[in-house]
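Q: Given only this backbone (363 positions), what sequence would you predict?
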């Protein structure tokens, strides 16, 4: 049965391999050895791409390229969001010009969030955390969808000329006016760095979760349709797997029990980890006999995605769980200590970037 990807939904993706078959996403495997320093690539968390060879060529030949991403200012910045922030920093170090969009218009249309609230969340939760995680105010373009430059809005309006209602319905399913407006605006977000006013035609890479691929497909089609006007290069994309929420299911900003925010009180974070869903057995005795299931453990996800950079250490944690040498309570305690230490250090960094935040907003 064909799967539908919903960029506004909350469904989980159960079979990432199926995305290669159903939607033509390509495996990222051939690029893994090129970026062994990147934990997400090395461990297969970034699993797929469209046209990444174009970005690889720019990196290897030190040619200009752009990394573009957006943020949804709807709640706390948590470890699921950190994955994208780390990728922004990674590409900036590789020489990319960075474009970051606060989707405050989409937040207003799709989630009923006021522009004032969206701005506060953008600055306090996202931009401050980005900078504390290592983003620098160089080659950096940051904007709000509701308050930007005229050529961007002109492009957004022009894009609507070459897409039909039936086409959007085929991509997104049931439509609302808000969805139509948001999809065209996101295409403008991705394509406008190639306008003459913003630097001209260059390769652009957009790192996303697979649920956002409908926006990528639409934008790539629109890039081709506006060749005569703008000479757009079809945007490239990479796709990453999602961390599971602390109680299972999708990690979501709307459910505080599903995530740990980067502004979380370290002691509260400890408690969340100690109460998190694991891949453990019903009893300690059964766990020691049969071993745990780290692939189903939300605590192991924190080691895999964020907390353990040394692959040998990660393999040891995995093996001790799988072999029944370590029970869940012990593992949770280790994870809770690591999370608390990370949050304490990160929150000190947040306190030091206030001036940089103001500088970015003033650009």
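A: Predicted residues:
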């Amino acid at each position: 049965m064909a799967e539908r990807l919903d960029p506004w939904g909350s469904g989980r993706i159960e079979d990432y391999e199926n995305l290669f078959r159903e939607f033509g996403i390509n495996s990222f495997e051939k690029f893994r050895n090129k970026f062994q320093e990147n934990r997400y690539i090395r461990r297969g968390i970034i699993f797929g791409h469209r046209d990444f060879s174009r970005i690889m060529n720019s990196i290897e030949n030190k040619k200009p390229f752009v990394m573009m991403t957006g943020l949804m200012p709807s709640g706390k910045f948590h470890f699921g969001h950190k994955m994208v922030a780390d990728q922004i920093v990674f590409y900036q170090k590789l020489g990319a010009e960075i474009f970051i969009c606060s989707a405050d218009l989409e937040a207003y249309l799709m989630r009923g969030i006021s522009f004032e609230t969206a701005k506060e969340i953008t600055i306090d939760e996202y931009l401050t955390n980005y900078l504390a995680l290592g983003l620098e105010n160089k080659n950096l373009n940051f904007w709000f969808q509701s308050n930007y430059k005229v050529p961007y809005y002109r492009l957004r309006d022009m894009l609507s000329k070459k897409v039909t209602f039936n086409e959007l319905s085929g991509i997104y399913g049931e439509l609302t006016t808000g969805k139509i407006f948001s999809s065209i605006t996101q295409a403008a977000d991705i394509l406008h760095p190639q306008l003459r006013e913003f630097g001209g035609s260059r390769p652009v890479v957009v790192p996303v979760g697979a649920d956002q691929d409908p926006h990528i497909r639409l934008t790539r089609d629109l890039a081709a349709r506006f060749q005569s006007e703008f000479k757009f290069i079809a945007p490239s994309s990479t796709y990453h797997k999602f961390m599971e929420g602390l109680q299972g299911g999708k990690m979501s900003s709307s459910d505080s029990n599903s995530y740990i925010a980067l502004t979380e009180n370290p002691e509260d974070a400890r408690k969340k980890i100690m109460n998190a869903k694991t891949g453990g057995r019903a009893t300690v005795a059964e766990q020691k006999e049969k071993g745990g299931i780290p692939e189903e453990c939300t605590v192991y996800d924190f080691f895999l995605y964020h907390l353990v950079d040394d692959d040998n250490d990660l393999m040891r944690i995995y093996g001790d769980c799988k072999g029944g040498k370590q029970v869940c309570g012990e593992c949770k305690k280790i994870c809770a200590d690591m999370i608390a230490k990370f949050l304490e250090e990160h929150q000190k960094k947040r306190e030091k970037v206030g001036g940089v935040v103001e500088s970015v907003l003033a650009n």
